[in-house]
Design a protein that fits this description.
The complex is a heterodimer.
Chain A: E1 2-7, E2 10-15, H1 22-29, E3 48-51, E4 54-57, E5 70-72, H2 86-93, H3 103-116, H4 123-129, H5 141-151
Chain B: H1 22-26, E1 42-48, E2 54-60, H2 62-66, E3 70-75, H3 76-81, E4 111-112, E5 118-124, H4 127-135, E6 138-143, H5 150-155, E7 168-174, H6 178-186, E8 190-201, E9 210-216, E10 221-226, H7 231-242, E11 249-252, H8 268-280, E12 284-287, H9 290-296, E13 300-311, E14 317-329, H10 339-344, E15 355-364, H11 378-396, H12 400-407, E16 415-419, E17 425-429, H13 431-442, H14 444-457, E18 461-471, H15 479-484, E19 493-499, E20 505-509, H16 518-530, E21 537-540, H17 558-585, E22 592-595, E23 598-601, E24 604-610, H18 611-620, E25 632-638, E26 647-657, E27 663-673, H19 680-699, E28 731-734, H20 752-769, H21 783-793
Parallel strand pairs in B: 1-12, 10-11, 14-15, 20-21, 27-28
Antiparallel strand pairs in B: 1-5, 2-4, 2-6, 3-5, 7-15, 8-13, 9-10, 9-12, 13-14, 16-17, 18-26, 19-20, 19-25, 22-23, 23-24, 26-27
Helix pairs in contact in B: 11-12, 11-20, 13-14, 16-17, 17-18, 19-20
């Protein structure tokens, strides 16, 4: 089946098997390997991207379900002139990553969480908001710190 | 430990430098194995046994072979007949001469010994096609009785391997003075005997394991991309297992998404990918699914411990006696039998114990093999002694802080090079001030007051306070010591440091990162040693073609062995540069000083040369001392003379809802001592992660098996890796007691958090439940288990 999406501002089309998961479409058809796969039960959130502005686990969607959608992956988060997004900067500043595998999904989930809470988040809000994204390296301490530094309540 | 602005004059060591690894990982540029693809590659799909113990009676591959896009389907016997390997998968740690080690081939030949063991392999031209075809292979089995627990293994009415008469794999004793130990118990005023269960754990690094083998049919060599912690060991072991000359194998560990021990093995899939790629002349790849990982990657822990303490009237320890029954699983993997031994030396913890004895029996079961998991033997040891100390304190009627103070090695004062009864020599320790700081940060007195208030008021939310003072043994390791333990390799590490003609430095590291930030830390060491800016240092690693010598990353060894090798190689570079500088400045080398990257003549500050200029001079070789080789490159293989022994005190508080059994971790304070720190930010990050992995063992995680050997929670839906919502932020601080084992004075930090936190949390849980008369409970302290424990203790229905 033909699938057309706009990924990181660029129109991309391809013919895929109907059962192709969105994450495999992004990674293997479009070559955007920044989005990772960490589980097979939609538990870990490593594959989190933005679909039409909202965070979504790209392993829970078929590529065909994204037909016509606007998608942002981790590769599209930094600005065109190469500056990291403030959330990426915050993860670096606060040491919110170690092996980096959960990081793209965590950063995408975090930017979405902050956008959904314009009034600002407290620690509990960040922790609950990131419940669907697992990290095995950081113990979450510095991830929470990073997200609060961007989207914490004043 | 303060940052200085001028990079030339800065002391990079000790500063919380931001990680140079981060920008590319944050931008999604990290290339993990599953991100690397080769044209013409074949995807492996594994046909795995659904039974824990069975005889294979027939395999029908016809439907799978006929499926579109399938290249071939190969059963275990067919693979064996192809002569792809010359030896079974290796176990590098035969702990005793008579250890039983059943052959473990990449695919089962006639009998399967655990759920998930490979019985056939499908090769197909797509990921989905390989998975589909694997489903279409029909295997008939004759079920055999399964051994699904250590208890069943001990019982022995069924054996995990049909050809065995018993499930016992080995008996390993460490009882330096049996008479002294018996006397200690005979003369004791107080004794404690406690049984603890170290449940099986699934390591669950976020990146699943994967492998891509790329052959060169005419060249005869093969490049192996693997999600491994141990590219160098993998290279040697591929050669030993397959017969491919070692010189024809290149192993690359690209970006690796966490390991925690689970990626230090030599796995069936790796051997299959390499040998099939070579045989077929096509690249072969495989990535485990998360649910598959519970079978295709080893698990951790799996021990039953009995610990006995003998103490005098004041609670001073006189003897510690330990027995461990350890679950090997179905096969001996690379260091399976050695894991309990790594803990054996630490069952006396931080305490002054005159008499000690440890014995371990290893047992086979029909479960996924066990092997190293963060801490490997040491979390188990720390748990047993630290839980037992709390039981002893309660028995005597003193506080957990007091029982520890009364027993600390050196009386809690500073000591160095101290021999303990397990025959080790602890490098350095200073436990008293470390405990003081942890209690202060945790507001221990305040917590106790709040606990008393709640109890007096009869509140149903019980407060529990737990503490641990741990010591661990890491920096693996002196090669001779490993040889004494029958380990099949040395413990050295290799480093090469070269100053390029343009004055930039390249470091080749034998230890390999999978999240630890080696590139940043190593650049800090080199920057200080050579007096150049850290950004002028490039670190090369994780590719045996670039870094041919190394022993990789496990056992918190990278800094204490590999980092020390790098520092020593830098010293050699400086020494050679000094000879060149002396020659070119027409001065005596003895009169030269080296500081901030500059050689200067004592007393003549205007006579000076930067090391970068000397590097260029060493490259052109126009004016070198007679007989000196060109270029500024030195290498060091460092073999430490002793392990390192980090320590620390962790104090935490939990709240337990008496009505629901729910446990909430309210606060966690960790005061660690890993000697000198190169990058405190990285140290703290590793402690955070380690602590949460131990908390996970205490409260959430357990690989649960039914009596037939089926894992009932293989996916992340039901194996509870904690999320951010399950744990609190932590408070960390440090004392600094430099190691005497290496010139940098460094210890290790990667496993320390996990070695301490499970016991700290369970001490808090039991403390919370102590008003009900509870003295112990098993991990994980799930709401259901806690609720049952409370109700049983109350005499109600459980």
């Amino acid at each position: 089946m033909e699938v057309s999406v706009t990924v990181n501002g660029e129109r991309r089309s391809a013919d895929v098997e109907p059962r192709t998961l969105l994450v495999h479409f992004l990674r293997e058809t479009l070559g955007l390997t920044g989005t990772n796969v960490g589980c097979d039960t939609s538990s870990c959130g490593a594959c989190t991207i933005h679909v039409n502005g909202e965070s979504a686990k790209s392993c829970t969607m078929f590529a065909v379900q994204a037909d016509g959608a606007e998608i942002t992956t981790i590769e599209g988060l930094a600005s065109e002139n190469g500056e990291l997004h403030p959330m990426q900067e915050a993860f670096m500043e606060c040491h919110g990553l170690q092996c980096g595998y959960c990081t793209p999904g965590m950063v995408m989930a975090a930017t979405s969480l902050v956008a959904e809470n314009p009034g600002g988040l407290d620690e509990a809000g960040v922790r609950e908001g990131l419940e669907g994204n697992l990290c095995r390296c950081t113990g979450y301490h510095n991830i929470v710190k990073a997200v609060l530094s961007v989207g914490g309540a004043a | 430990m303060t940052a200085v602005e001028d990079p030339i004059m800065s002391t990079a060591i000790g500063t919380p430098m931001k990680r140079r690894e981060d920008p590319k990982l944050l931008a999604g540029e990290g290339k993990y194995v599953d991100d690397i693809h080769v044209v013409g590659q074949l995807w492996m799909g594994m046909v795995r046994s659904p039974l824990a113990h069975a005889r294979i009676t027939s395999i029908d591959t016809s439907a799978a072979e006929a499926a579109e896009g399938v290249h071939s389907v190969l059963t275990g016997p067919q693979l064996q007949e192809m002569g792809l390997w010359i030896a079974p998968l290796p176990c590098a740690w035969p702990v005793t001469e008579d250890m039983v080690n059943p052959p473990h081939y990449p695919a089962a030949i006639d009998e399967v010994h655990h759920v998930g063991e490979i019985v056939a392999v499908v090769l197909a031209d797509s990921r989905y096609g390989a998975a589909d075809a694997a489903e279409q292979v029909i295997v008939d089995y004759e079920p055999l009785d399964a051994v699904a627990s250590i208890a069943a293994a001990r019982d022995g009415s069924a054996t995990a391997h049909s050809e065995h008469e018993t499930n016992k794999a080995f008996h390993w004793p460490l009882v330096p003075d049996p008479d002294a130990l018996d006397a200690a118990f005979a003369n004791a005023t107080h004794t404690v005997k406690a049984d603890f269960v170290q449940q099986r754990l699934i390591p669950a690094a976020m990146e699943p394991r994967g492998v891509l083998a790329v052959p060169s049919p005419m060249g005869g060599d093969v490049t192996v991309y693997s999600a491994t912690q141990v590219p160098h060991i993998l290279k040697v072991m591929i050669a030993a297992t397959t017969g491919i000359p070692e010189s024809k194998i290149r192993v690359v560990a690209p970006a690796v998404g966490g390991g925690f021990g689970a990626k230090l093995n030599i796995n069936p899939d790796e051997i299959l990918a390499v040998t099939l790629a070579n045989r077929l002349g096509r690249a072969v790849r495989w990535t485990e699914s998360r649910s598959e990982a519970a079978f295709s990657t080893h698990q951790g822990r799996g021990q039953l411990q009995t610990i006995e303490l003998a103490a005098d009237a004041d609670g001073k320890l006189q003897g510690v006696r330990v027995h461990v029954d350890a679950d090997m699983g179905a096969y001996m993997m690379l260091i399976t039998p050695g894991v309990p031994l790594l803990g054996s030396f630490l069952y006396t913890g931080v305490y002054d114990v005159p008499a000690f004895g440890f014995t371990c029996d290893g047992y086979f079961t029909n479960l996924t093999p066990t092997d190293a998991y963060r801490g490997a033997g040491r979390p188990e040891a720390s748990y047993a002694i630290e839980r037992a100390m709390d039981i002893l304190a309660a028995q005597i009627g003193i506080g957990p802080d007091e029982i520890r103070r009364r027993n600390y090695l050196g009386g809690g004062e500073y000591f160095e090079n101290l021999e303990v009864p397990s025959t080790l020599v602890f490098d350095s320790g200073h436990y008293g001030p470390n405990l003081d700081r942890a209690l202060e940060l945790a507001d221990y007195d305040g917590l106790r007051a709040e606990q008393a208030r709640r109890r007096a008021a009869g509140e149903s939310k019980q407060l529990g306070i737990g503490m641990v003072t741990y010591v661990e043994i890491c920096g693996l390791a002196p090669s001779r010591a490993l040889g004494g333990l029958s380990y099949g390799a040395g413990g050295w590490e290799h480093a090469t440091v070269r100053l390029l003609p343009t004055g930039k430095a390249e470091v080749v590291s034998g230890s390999t990162p999978h999240g630890q930030g080696h590139e940043t830390t190593w650049s800090q060491i080199v920057a200080d040693k050579l007096g150049i800016p850290p950004e002028d240092v490039t670190v090369l690693h994780s590719d045996t073609a670039i870094s041919p010598l190394g022993l990789d990353t496990y056992g918190s060894r990278s800094l204490a062995v590999g980092g020390v090798a790098i520092a020593a190689a830098c010293d050699k570079v400086v020494e050679k540069a000094k000879q060149i500088a002396a020659h070119q400045m027409e001065a005596s080398a003895d009169d030269l000083e080296f500081a901030g990257g500059m050689f200067s003549v004592s007393g003549s500050p205007d006579q000076a040369m930067p090391i970068q200029a000397i590097a260029f001079g060493a490259f052109t070789a126009h004016d070198l001392p007679d007989g000196m080789e060109p270029n500024l490159q030195e290498q060091v293989t460092f073999d430490p003379t002793n392990f390192v022994f980090p320590f620390g005190t962790h104090v935490c508080a939990v709240e337990i809802d008496e009505d629901t059994g729910a446990v909430e971790l309210l606060s966690y304070v960790a005061v660690d001592d890993c000697g000198n720190q190169i990058n405190p930010m990285i140290v703290e990050g590793q402690l955070h992660g380690g602590i949460v992995q131990g908390v996970a063992q205490a409260l959430f995680e357990e690989a649960c098996y039914d009596e037939d050997g089926n894992l009932t929670n293989p996916s992340m839906m039901d194996y509870l890796v904690p999320s951010a919502a399950d744990v609190p932020s932590m408070v960390t601080d440090y004392t600094v007691t430099p190691s005497t084992s290496n010139p940098l004075g460094v210890k290790g930090a990667g496993e320390a958090g996990t070695i301490s936190s499970a016991a700290a949390v369970m001490n808090a849980v039991v403390d919370a439940l102590s008003p009900f008369g509870v003295v112990d409970m098993d991990m994980p302290a799930t709401p259901q288990r806690v609720w049952r424990t409370i109700n049983e203790a109350k005499g109600g229905q459980a």
